[in-house]
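Database export, one record per block. Field names are fixed; values are copied verbatim from the stored entry.
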Amino acid sequence: MKSEQNRRSFIKATALTAAGIGIGAESFAKIFNSPANLAGNRIGIIGLDTSHSIAFTKALNGPNPNPEFGGYKVVAAYPYGTKTIKSSTDRIPGYIEDVKKLGVEITDSIADLLSKVDFVLLETNDGRLHREQAMQVIKAGKRFFIDKPIAASLADASAIFDAAKKANVGVFSASSLRYSVGAQEIAGGKHGKVLGAETYSPCHLESSHPDLFWYGIHGVESLFTVMGPGCKQVVRISTPDADVVVGTWNDGRIGTFRGVRSGKLGYGGTVFAEKGTVQIGEYGGYNPLLKQITDFFTSGVVPVNSVDTLDICAFMEAADESKRKGGTPVTLASVYAKVPKSK
């Protein structure tokens, strides 16, 4: 209460000063309420074991940041991150030096990080750690973004959303592929109703994670971006070089994801819509996703709801179960039924 009274007193005094030098009330409000002039523009990163951490920090802390990012800055980072996946741990020492050059303080704990920031990018490459790390952020009451994968299981993803809802803490997760121009235009109805789709992406595997959670999630999220939630059943065919997962939606539409592990790799897809067959198009980089994140930090409005994200996780777990059963159909309802109920 005292801090709020101090804030109001400060606003009143500053407004009177502004009036004295000829700044109108409307102009003053715009200046005071811009993110760059609020105390709450400090971002902390958990996990320097992924290139995403470097890309986001460069975009926000570089010499010419995009004004659309609202003046947010990465001020602190906790490097870990996985300590067991070698391809990720090997990156950490170099990435520590990279972010330090951009003015980022390195902390020795998540608790220390949370004391220094207003918002959090949970970037740890190891989805198995996300639930434990997210709970610390939720307990601290910090609005946050979780990079892909949101977790290494549907159960953990569900637990994160449940805890965040109970604590009234905003959180969302998304692949940057969701915000490619083509995918957003298709999802927005530019070509009419989507009748079906086939997407593809690299699908490298990591033994510590369910198959599609590690990297195939990019193409899966593209599929759900254009098709929307509501998949009821999946069938998976898997070989050393590729995976094909065919989903049937509740309304009878069919969506297919192809995960690629050999030959030239890329991202994209074909969408069958009312007005014609169109390509999703090229990947648009990280900035469109970062714009969504900073807008969310400002407004508190999540751009991707939990239902969509949980359906993506259920689709990927059902695909794994179909593989274990030799390609037999698996319903998402059966996967959801195995998730422990929140208390």
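Remark 1: The CA atoms of residues 48 and 95 lie 6 Å apart.
Remark 2: The longest strand covers residues 194-202.
End of record.
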